[in-house]
Amino acid sequence: ASLHGLLEEIRAGRAADRVAAPLVDGVAQPGVERPLLAPADAATIVGRVREADEATADRAVEAARRGFRAWERTPAAARAAALEKASDLLEARRGRLLGLLQAEAGKTLDDALAELREAVDFLRYYAAQARSLFGEGEPMPGPTGEDNRLVHRGRGVFLCISPWNFPLAIFLGQVSAALAAGNAVVAKPAEQTPLVAVEAVRALHEAGVPASALQFVTGDGRVGARLVAHRHIAGVAFTGSTETARRINQTLAAKDGPIVPLIAETGGINAMIVDATALPEQVSDDVVTSAFRSAGQRCSALRLLCVQEDVADKMIGMIVGAARELKLGDPQDLSVQVGPVIDAEAKQRLDAHIARLKGSARVHLAEEAPAQGYFVGPHVFELKRQADLTEEIFGPVLHVVRWKAGELPALLDGIEATGYGLTLGVHSRIDATIAQVISRLDVGNCYVNRNMIGAVVGTQPFGGSGLSGTGPKAGGPNYLKRFAVEQTVTVNTAAAGGNASLIAMGE
Ligand code: UN1
Questions:
Q1: For 74-126, what is each residue's pLDDT tens digit?
Q2: How far away, in angstroms, is 90 Cα from ligand 1 center?
Q3: pTM (whole model) above 0.90
């Protein structure tokens, strides 16, 4: 379709008056309503969210519990077909979804399109995985006269808590994986982005996921904490801050009853190592993309650029020159490359960090931001040492350090010592250097001579270790298994009446 046609669809999709209400068995629940303001101007009401209270949260878990058995008994192929149908619905509703991603989450059209693509990919990838993993079970080798199979099945009620920075893709990635594996789901979107999430839930319901198998609970961290503590939650998938993941883990550990797994995808202080042999134009391009695209609001984004001294002035100059050209503003304007940050709190945190660094670091770039809306201009600061950056800064702020030949091992030790391990970039034309960097760092996603964002579902399984997450990697071949329990079924096929088809009944 033409760009003009797409923009028309987006305009039409934006017009509707929207409310995201908690859905228990598909029925909108009462609650206090709060307007959702567009981050681009902090004034336009994009829609309203109706907040769930604790009683609603409890009811959603109970309802999911009742929905679990029927959904688990639905053959994996039928579950997969429902996810695939939902992916078609998302594509058919792209105007509305892109419009919401722009208005509610402040995404540029490029970012919104990439996110819609990723959401569709997650649905189709996990559907395909469900077919192969959860169908007949995996035949295991063994003696004749016996049939051994490893069967995967749902755990029960899975709680999915998702972030505002990918309100469609990560929301659906978690939910579709849990559903594909045969779990009932209680989904809690980020409090900033419930409108696009409820669209995703509606698409899944319309595509054949029973309302009882997918419950939707709005609200902030208090509601999230209530859900995590509920005794009938059998597993939790969480993407967000390391600190929240830790709190979730503590709550789960303190609960009575079965041990509950947590699949967490958290933050990073992602570094890129650039040596003197790197191609300057390529580095500049990849740094600007990795640090400033999506206004730096990706957990994969580049935070710490480490450049070899010999080329540092030249590289920093090129990067600053390119970053200065970025157009900041309302993401609904097609020429804009950097949109707003998500809310007032995010802006305050970034502004405070920037003010601190203006007093303590060398300032290479400090772009002004529009006064209205939650904007932060791109910044480039040079730090004296790697250890000066101790926390994840979630926005368009790039930190740079220089290293001299011989100092690389100590620099890598310092990066490793942060405990984070999400993404890593290496730019070099020396294979031994590339191998040295990658093998020293326990980082989930390593990118060599390219940018560090936009992992592709099924191609670049995504996720980190240490403070950055538990694994398994989203969009990878092992993700679904963590949402499931394993059951080994051994049938004596030599016994009278022994029949391997018993296994299908047992499933
Ligand atoms: C996140 O920002 O929470 O590779 C994770 C990427 C995305 C990052 C998602 N998959 O840029």
A1: 999 999 999 999 999 999 999 999 999 999 999 999 999 999 999 999 999 99
A2: 20
A3: yes
What is the Cα gyration radius of the chain?
24
This complex has an ipTM of 0.93
Q: How far apart are CA 245 and CA 210, in angstroms?
A: 29
Active site (annotated) includes residue 416: no
| Active-site option among 51, 84, 265, 382 | 265
Atom of ligand 1 nearest to the CA of 445: 4
- How far is it, in rounded angstroms, from Cα 175 to Cα 224? 16
Measure 453 CA to ligand 1 centroid, in angstroms: 7
- The residue nearest atom 6 of ligand 1, judged by CA position, is 454
pLDDT tens sequence across 133-143: 998 889 999 99
Q: What's the CA gap between 458 and 308, in Å, rounded?
A: 34
Structure tokens at 183: 């779990």
Cβ-based neighbours of 60, under 8 Å, separated by 6 or more? 22, 24, 52, 186, 215, 216, 217, 227
Query: Which residue has the least CA distance to atom 1 on ligand 1?
Result: 299
